[in-house]
User: Fold this.
Amino acid sequence: MNDKVIINDLTFYYGNNSAVKNVNIRVQENSVLALIGPSGCGKSTLIRCINRMNDIIPATRTEGDILIDGGSIYADKYNVSDLRRRVGMVFQKSNPFPKSVFENIAYGLKINGIKNKYDIETRVEKSLKGAALWDEVKDRLDDSALGLSGGQQQRLCIARTIAIEPEIILMDEPASALDPISTQKIEELIQDLKAKYTIIIVTHNMQQAARISDFTAFMYMGNLIEINNTEAIFTKPGLEMTENYVTGKFG
Amino acid sequence: MKHLNRKIIYDIILSKFFFIVGLSCLIILFIIMLFLFIEGIPVLNHVSLTDFIFGTSWYPTSDHARFGILPLISASAAVTLLASLLAVPFSLAIAIYLSELAGNLIREIIKPVIEIIASIPSVIIGFFGMVVVAPFLQNNFDLDTGLNLFNAALMLAFMAVPTIASICEDAISSVPASLKEASYALGANRWQTIYHITVPAALSGIWTAIILGISRVIGETMVVLMVAGGAAIIPLSIFDPVRPLTSNIAAEMAEAAVGGPHYRALFAIGIILFIITFIFNIIADYLSGKYKFKEG
Ligand SMILES: Nc1ncnc2c1ncn2[C@@H]1O[C@H](COP(=O)(O)OP(=O)(O)O)[C@@H](O)[C@H]1O
Ligand SMILES: [Mg+2]
Assistant:
């Protein structure tokens, strides 16, 4: 399998503080990589580098490189909007727009140049089905998305992301604010999405990482401590520190 | 125990105090209204309600006095509308610039400047309109007088911009960053995000700002008294001199015989103004009540 994302010696600074330090990661195409580590260790910062979301924060600096399909996303000519179309993102707190369910998804399509009403309708339906939300909302597409439950809102955000057909999906603790049933739905969804997308997910839930990911990377204080296939990380970690973390001895 | 009792007593005294203050506001408002209505309603002994509101001649002091205030109402409406058309886009642009585009330094400079503009006494703005804007208009547009509807609207817009801009800026700034990030994450650029996400999310706050700005424009007296030109005619051009409701009261109250028809008519105009601003405030209240942002 080929490497979809290659993170090369990446260091990221907020002002003078580096939150990510010399990180090297390769992510295989159509795999799920889980990022684990205690809070504040730089997981969010790292995935936000992959769609250059950190660009909008002033006084930040990046060293090293990230390649997608072999091309540097920091190359001078690289268009950030194009990058974000290829690399979708689902946030920790569900953040639907204060618009209708339909418009929440149609917005991303419209700004990406899809104008035809029929195309938009088909893709809205397709992505809602893809996010396992269609049956629950098909009769209330014109209602405000803010009226949906927390779990439904988060799946709507996933639908919105897959509607523009990205290649990679970044998820930052997408289920951390959800009840167990909604969490399970999201986890099942991630399993389905793997067939089409490369997924990088931040989670603080060890069982979740073990259940859904193919590879797991453990970070600590901005450093990548260990990365391996998930089974190895959870059954025979290479370092004692990793073992202590995944068994809950610290974190 | 003793300590607790004391706290409770303080509590009761304080809440009574604020209750009385609140109540006295209501009572004063009621007295003003009562006064306005007692003094104004008897105008109906001299002119019918329809002739009063829809009459096109305002000759309050002639032997055959006419009390039709349509010219005054239309002057107020025209001045307000034109001032809003000038002020709203400009205010919105300032608000968007300050909340979404400007750096911290520029924002810290411009915001106090806007507050200073808001605190300029209206008589000074009127003075500026008379001495600077009027001659400019008169010379450049070849007019009989530069004291006209357009001049008044321009000065009123200048007064309304700080109010509208700063409330809009608050509304736009309070749109959660998470919504903007969601938009950027879909590949939207800054302008698409502002236009499709940030401004619509702040819309009820923006409406509140506009309504409050407009009610300030309607109620403003000094500026229109000084620069609107004062002719009680229904305006047909934006360069016609006009006589809005407020300036009419201010200009004529001193010369109207107490208790006479003219005096009654001026109070009745006050009632009309009161009702208009009251309605605008209710609308603003309703909109700002709706403006409770629900975060996901
Ligand atoms: N916008 C920011 N400005 C400055 N420092 C930040 C910012 N966001 C995060 N940090 C710092 O960077 C470090 C890593 O944060 P983060 O990536 O959010 O960690 P995690 O997602 O693993 O909890 C923390 O020390 C945090 O305080
Ligand atoms: Mg985080």
